[in-house]
Amino acid sequence: MKRKKTALLMTALLIIVAGGIYFYYGFLFKEARNIESENPEISITASQLIDDYNSDPKKADLQYLNKTIEIKGTVTKETDSVIILQSSVFCLFNQKLKHNLLNTNAVVKGKCIGYDELFQEIKLDQCTINKPNN
Questions:
Q1: Tens of pLDDT along 1-37?
Q2: Sign of torsion, CA 79 83 84 85?
Q3: pLDDT tens across 72-84, in order?
Q4: What is the fold, at CATH topology level, of the domain defined by 35-129?
Q5: Rounded to an integer, what is the distance from CA 95 to the centroid of its chain?
Q6: Which residue windows are transmembrane per the record (predicted)?
Q7: Other CB atoms closer than 10 Å to residue 109's CB: what's the count?
Q8: Where do runs of H (alpha helix) occur along 24-132?
Q9: What does DSSP assign to residue 31?
């Protein structure tokens, strides 16, 4: 009788642990998206993106937020891992940039993370440069 209770208890414990692992990996733990390998959902100019956010930020968030977008524009500022397009689109890269892109036209792909009211910038992260050209 004691052996049956122990076996039943061990089986229940195993089911609970297996269920916990399934729940963690199935629902709670999500791997980060690899934006570099995704195709852009939207291709837009930096000027149009800025206009959309300036005219109706809530509508623009519905259209662009958390989506992979491709943006064409002129690089107006550059640091080690950031470029700014048209003075208002902040593009954060995962690694340091090797090119001097200042005052050139660039095509950047990244994930839109929204509008920063403090800096008045549209923010993108996990960016990659697709086709820099003059």
A1: 778 788 788 787 888 877 777 766 666 656 677 888 8
A2: positive
A3: 999 999 998 999 9
A4: OB fold (Dihydrolipoamide Acetyltransferase, E2P) (2.40.50)
A5: 15
A6: 7-27
A7: 22
A8: 46-55, 57-64
A9: P
